[in-house]
Specification:
Blueprint lengths: L1 H14 L7 H35 L5 H28 L3 H4 L6 H39 L1 H4 L2 H13 L2 H17 L7 H4 L1 H16 L8 H10 L3 H9 L2 H11 L2 H34 L19 H15 L1 H8 L4 H13 L3 H11 L3 H21 L16 H4 L4 H31 L3 H28 L8 H6 L2 H27 L4 H33 L1
């Protein structure tokens, strides 16, 4: 075990960005907690609280908690698959480790534990919120003595720490299976699409489980959970089989179910350790042989001379689109906004609170107009931070960052290219989301143009802040592209600042709307001028800061 602990410490030091020792970054770390973790935890806990209240009436109080745990298990497996592939097989340190007198299964164990801890921190926080929401709902119905049964509390603590273990074990076994079975494959593309395959399978299963439901909404789905007839949840209960035992331990305060849950986790971990002894070294040989069939031929006739800005912009586009990790997490993730807006409005436009909101907006109610304006501003701020294009602008250069100082292109041009690629990949999808929302809201063209300007100003602010943070402390010692994204704290800081910015803008907007009683036309003008002025100021200020930081790199 001492050897495994030493390896874990080495992996942590080599693959995680350390927090810079500056007061600003300590403040930003607090902002991450207040702007990201706490709001997300409150939302998740509240959802579990509401579902538990509804399912108590249906005679299945633990159904909401179980559903939340299984959904988090699905996310952990889908998004953990490529993390496991990257850490276990595609990290550049494997050539160094395999030459050392270290048993290969111990190396796999250390890498697995590192990946598990690194990927589970956020999920553990969400699980804690799920259990708190469940206990609050049960206590409201049955009292605190019944809710906080000692076995239930201990089970919740174990669940908070161990729920991600089963999906991560499955991810690792899946990766071992693929590398052993696909020995003759000489392309990494098959392995790159491993997580996509899982996502499609789970999505198809979920959609298949909705057949025959008729009208699909939150109320009917909660009723389905209460009756135990949800095929999706039943399948997940079989696949992640220890999780229902944990739900029984928490719901009934049954120590036998807790013991079975812990034994299942220990058994799966032991099985993974044994599989590592048998197959991990063989999988490393498979990955080492990738790409040995020949070199790509370069067509020099197609090389053309471009302006410095265009050449820099094309380079940024190619880095983002041709690298699997960057393409998935920085480019394709933007599609969530128009697709999400369409699905949300398509299935809720005629029912519940959404139908009421659309009716009020179309009737010209100012409060509905105010809320939609705020949503658009929040969308522009959060979208630019979530895709991490700006907040990894310099991190993506990795150990070649110093080349930015020596290529015959000025800092200003390189900076503008990095900013432009963020807008290029983000703004069109925001316009598409704007079109979807305005279509269902039946907003006039002038309002659509107004929202488009708000989205652009908010995106410029998010891009300027992200580039400023990443230029001040870029993470350049990453091992692979997924590590560059996962280990870069600037992305989290950018998101936290934008979340806090959403709160500040929401508060100021509320004051303008409720206290000053501005007419809606004047309110729109004031918000647009204020946001555009902030965007212009942020762009000029951060441009100077970024150029100065580039000179110090």
């Amino acid at each position: 075990m001492s050897g495994i602990r030493s390896l874990i410490r080495i992996l942590y030091k080599n693959t995680q960005m350390m927090l810079p020792k500056r007061t600003l970054y300590r403040v930003l770390a607090v902002a991450v907690i207040l702007g990201i973790l706490v709001p997300c935890g409150v939302v998740v806990g509240f959802c579990c609280y509401v579902m538990t209240q509804a399912l108590i009436l249906a005679g299945n109080p633990g159904g909401g908690m179980l559903f939340a745990m299984q959904i988090l298990s699905v996310f952990s497996m889908v998004f953990g698959t490529w993390v496991v592939f990257g850490v276990l097989f595609f990290s550049s340190d494997r050539e160094h480790f395999v030459t050392l007198p270290i048993p290969v299964h111990q190396l796999m164990a250390a890498k697995f534990i590192y990946a598990y801890v690194a990927e589970s921190l956020m999920e553990c926080f969400m699980l804690a919120a799920v259990f708190i929401g469940y206990f609050l709902a049960v206590a409201e119905e049955e009292g605190w003595a019944a809710a906080l049964h000692p076995v239930a509390v201990v089970s919740a603590v174990f669940g908070t720490l161990l729920i991600p273990l089963v999906p991560m074990v499955y991810c690792t076994l899946y990766s071992l299976l693929l590398t052993v079975c696909l020995k003759k494959v000489r392309s990494a593309k098959v392995f790159h699409h491993a997580s996509t395959i899982l996502l499609v399978l789970f999505a198809v299963l979920f959609l298949f489980s909705l057949r025959g439901m008729g009208q699909i909404n939150v109320e009917t789905y909660v009723e389905l959970l209460g009756s135990g007839g949800d095929l999706f949840l039943r399948t997940l209960n079989l696949f992640f089989f220890p999780v229902p035992w944990l739900a029984e331990a928490i719901g009934r305060g049954n120590i036998g179910y807790l013991g079975a849950y812990l034994a299942a986790n220990v058994g799966l971990a032991a099985g993974l350790y044994g599989a590592g002894k048998l197959f991990y070294q063989e999988g490393l040989y498979t990955v080492a042989a990738l790409g040995t069939t020949g070199k790509t031929k370069v067509n020099y006739d197609r090389i053309t001379v471009r302006s410095p800005f265009v050449a820099s912009l094309v380079k940024e586009i190619k880095v983002l689109t041709r690298t699997k990790a960057f393409a998935n997490n920085c480019v394709y993730v933007n599609l969530i906004w128009p697709v999400g807006a369409f699905l949300l409005l398509r299935f809720t436009k005629d029912q519940g609170a959404m139908a009421d909101f659309i009716r009020l907006y179309q009737a010209g109610k100012e409060r509905a107009d105010f809320l939609l304006t705020f949503v658009m501003i929040a969308l522009g701020l959060i979208a630019g931070a979530m895709n991490s294009i700006a907040s990894t602008a310099f991190t993506r250069e990795g150990q070649h960052l110093s080349l930015l100082k020596y290529i015959p292109v000025s800092y200003e041009i390189q900076m503008r290219a990095k900013a432009a690629v963020s807008v290029l990949f983000t703004y069109p999808v925001l316009l598409a989301a704007n079109g979807v929302i305005c279509f269902y809201m039946r907003a006039p063209l002038r309002i659509q143009l107004f929202y488009a300007l708000l989205l652009l100003a908010a995106l410029v602010i998010s891009t300027a802040v992200g580039m400023g943070l990443d230029s001040a402390a870029p993470y350049v010692t990453w091992d692979d592209e997924y590590s560059a994204l996962r280990g870069n704290i600037n992305s989290f800081f950018n998101m936290a600042v934008m979340m806090l910015g959403v709160g500040v803008i929401g508060g100021v907007s509320y004051l303008l709307f409720e206290w000053l009683k501005l007419p809606m036309g004047i309110y729109h003008f004031v918000i647009l001028v204020a946001l555009a002025g902030t965007a212009v100021g942020a762009a000029f200020i951060e441009a100077d800061n970024v150029v100065e930081n580039m000179a110090k790199m």
